[in-house]
Amino acid sequence: MTDTTKSATLTIGDKTYELPIYSPTAGPDVVDIRKLYGTAGVFTYDPGFTSTASCDSTITFIDGDKGILLHRGYPIDQLAEKSHYLEVCYLLMNGELPDAAALEDFETRITRHTMVHEQMHNFFRGFRRDAHPMATMVGVVGAMSAFYHDSTDINDEWQREVAAMRLIAKVPTIAAMAYKYSIGQPFVYPRNDLDYASNFLHMCFSVPAEEYHVDPILSRAMDRIFTLHADHEQNASTSTVRLASSSGANPFACIAAGIACLWGPAHGGANQACLEMLKEIGTPDRIPEFIGRAKDKNDPFRLMGFGHRVYKNFDPRATVMKQSADEVLDLLGIEDNPILQVAKELERQALEDPYFADKKLFPNVDFYSGIILEAMGFPTSMFTPIFAVSRTVGWVSQWKEMIADPQNKIGRPRQLYLGETQRDYVDIEKR
Ligand code: SDX
Question: Which residues does the Swiss-Prot or TrEMBL record annotate as the active site (predicted)?
Answer without folding.
Answer: 308, 366
